[in-house]
Amino acid sequence: QPFLTSQSNVIRPALLPLLQGKLEIAYLEISSPHLSLIEARQGSWNIASLSSGGNSRPFTLDHLSITNATVHLRRPSRPTATYTRIHAELRNYRPQQPFSLTLGATLPNSQTLSFSGTLSPAGPAFEIRDGRLNFASLAARFTGKASSSSLDLKAEIPSSPIASAAPLFLPSDLKASGDVSANIQVSGTPQSPQLSGNLQLRGFEVSGSALKQPVRTPQLDMTFTPDRLTLAPARITSGSTQLQAFGVLARYASDPLLEATLIAPSATLPELLAIARAYGLSGREGVSSTGQAQLQVRAHGRLKANAPLEYTGSGKLENATLSLPSLNRPLTIPHASFRFAAGSAQFSNTTGSVGSTTISGDLSVANFARPVLQLSLSSERLNLDEIRSLLRPSSAKSVPPSLTASGSLRIGSLQASDLVLTQLNAHASYRDAHLMLNPLTASLYGGRHTGSLDIDLRPATPVYHLKSQLDRIESSQFLAATTSVKNIISGPFSSAIDVRFSPADPAHLAQSINGKINLNFKEGRIASYNLTNELSPYGRLIG
Asked: Cα separations (Å) of 7 from 4, 34, 65, 203, 215?
């Protein structure tokens, strides 16, 4: 394939050497070229022939200028990498003689990246003398040797402001300040570089409109060895929140293995989320919070594709408030203790409230990819109509279909429209978008309910399947809560029920019932009414 294609070229050779059989180019300008750098499977590159001895005639170049270049880098078993808006300038090239080289590029964020230095051919490698790499306000100095198969370089970054380099690692609405310095020896290969030395950040601070308080790190020290990168304990603050972070990245050149720890002995939730955003960790959009937190997290694992990190740790929440996109009202958590390890989490002694509903108890989650919940929850009062009104419409399908759950529920008073159940106890299970309460027992209008309830959540309007044995239920209260029949029938009744219903409006639940209901009235009463007046319309109808 062509190594170089371009829109236009300007070539000015030296005339007298050309008459003597020598090609000496005084000036070469290439505009908007496309360069293809191709590595063969055996490790050789297509550009190797430019400096090979295949042509015994000497080649020199006084001045080379390349503007607005695009470079395509093709390597075996890897996708093609493309780099654009590159410029280069080479001066005084002679075979086996030092020459100067300048490279530069404009990044998509309009920042400039450039390299300049003197290079000397040394067999298949180049020796770099007084190399300088500049990115915005950062300036690194390089010396040593480099080739396509080996590196032996020394890099030094004198103390430089980091502000203009912030777009490399921060969102556009955040800015950074502070100084960075480094002294690093680079060895190994370009594919697997090995580092020795250190890097320091001093007075590092991230601020912006998205952060109510700046995030500060007075001192951050990183040490490199050929086998590991070590982050010394660093103190991170935002407002009144202080964190401590430290860790090790082993085998970073070949098979990176991370061991990191984060400790927050006393933090506020907004400042904790701000610190996460300042260091590149994005949370769910639309989530805001208040309250206090304690947190200790250890991250462990290989930094490879499809190999998620393992997190272990523990923490507490106190007087927390979460505003979630799925709820019209904030969720308050007066207290919660939690532990997590190996894809699981346990919440104990936890209390949460939304609207007038408060739920407390224990909860465990296993296998976050396909969550399995175990729960033991209780609530003094639960109003299903209020809960329904608090859910935003988009949250109806927010439960992952792979979720399974089981456990116990205890509710002091459960209200759905005008229907009220008390002293409700149930074993709950959830699977394949079905919620099953079995057994389900409750007190209902002076009597007792025993049975089960299956709720199919897949349709837009849920479908309920109720199997129930009712014993001595006061009929007047029950009928008033579930039908339009009021103050006519009274007295206790018992019933065996096996029905399905799917009410579009909970107030008209009875109209959607389909199934079997066996009623047994004892001591029943019918209120006084004018039988003649009630029957007369039927009499007129039949003449």
From this structure: 10, 9, 14, 48, 49
